[in-house]
Amino acid sequence: MLSLIQKLGYFPRTAVWELTLGCNLCCRHCGSRAGRPRDRELTEEEAFRLADELVDLGLERITLSGGEPTMSPYWVELGARLVQAGVKVNLISNGMGWSGDHARRAKDAGFESAAFSVDGFAGAHDYIRDVAGAFDHVLGAFAACRAAGLPVGVVTTVYRHNLKDLRALRGFLREQGVRSWQVQIGNPAGNMKDHPDLVIVPRDLLEIVPELAALRREAEKPDIYIGDNVGYFGPYEKDLRDTGREIDFWLGCRAGLQVIGIESDGGIKGCLSLPSELNQEDRFLEGNVRERSLTDIWCDPDAFAYNRQFTVARLSGFCGTCKYNEVCRGGCLWTSFSHSGDRYENPFCYYRVAVEAGLLEP
Asked: pLDDT for 233-291, tens place per residue?
């Protein structure tokens, strides 16, 4: 499968752009340890120039993120510029400062949607943020978007306090008029690395994956999108990833192949979730647009080597002998690194857990 992607060529089809690392919360599960802005974050002029370069490289869809992206002084203007260039733009916010004005401005700028982090019902959601009333702020953000006619999405991170609530939460989100719902697993990275008691264990996948598969089969609103760190293979793979296209299974990590992550000071990674300086890690930074153009970074033959130069021989442990390893390539890079420090050994794989539990044949 990687050879097919290589033949098609690399281009940053989708991006996640951290507009600022500044945030009005300090969540227990924040992988980037957001709070204070990075030193020398991009100016509006620099950001616009980078946006134009992304378009020239073939960008189709982007998520404006943070930190809290609405704390960036140019979040609306940047989104509007990308929309005018034909890019599909959405934004993900914590909802704490979201208002009717935010919703109207995003709608007028042509944003496809605004998504909000909702990590369970009030108790679980407020706990992970260590702020009482945070859940109520998100409900207010939902209402503001409905009033402005701006579609609403939700992103849920599964952790120890909410893993039993997925079915009930979907019903609640449907009542709130939420259009799309992305579900991902919390990894022990960033702030969550300091709270290992909140992280689910691999065996929890035996409950979570069948539940998500069943919810997707029911085809009720909101539409469910499965995060790249959930799966892989086994009897539920089609249910998890079927979008009506010909390929309905995991195709491996696309960081640096078709996906790009942009840090607020111009740092470039294959995936924004991959750790960097605040987690004392620099191996995933490919360069900075203040030093080299994005085109030069993206087209560097030595860049994103963990994916572009991948071989099955690099896989270790269960992944090294798995019959799906050429396609899967060890699953989500961020998950593998977070749990083992090794990109090529991933304990959070449904197929692996089911085989080790004697539920599936290897």
From this structure: 999 999 999 877 767 889 899 999 999 999 999 999 999 999 887 778 888 999 999 99
- Read off the tokens for 130: 């260590």
Which pLDDT tens digit goes with each residue over 180-220?
A: 999 999 999 999 999 999 999 999 999 999 999 999 999 89
CA distances to 172, 203, 287, 298 from 56, rounded to whole Å, are 41, 44, 19, 12
Q: Are 119 and 29 in contact (CB under 8 A)?
A: yes
pTM of the model: 0.94
DSSP designation for 305: H
Q: Which residues contact 276 (CB under 8 A, 6 or more apart)?
A: 263, 267, 269, 282, 284, 285
At 260, give phi and psi (nearest 5°).
-140, 145
Q: Starting at the earlier edge strand, list the strands of the sheet with 287-288.
A: 223-226, 180-185, 152-158, 113-117, 88-93, 61-65, 14-18, 259-262, 267-269, 287-288
Nearest to 181 by CA among 159, 209, 155, 157: 155
List, in order, residues 6 or more apart from 354 with CB less than 8 Å away: 206, 234, 360
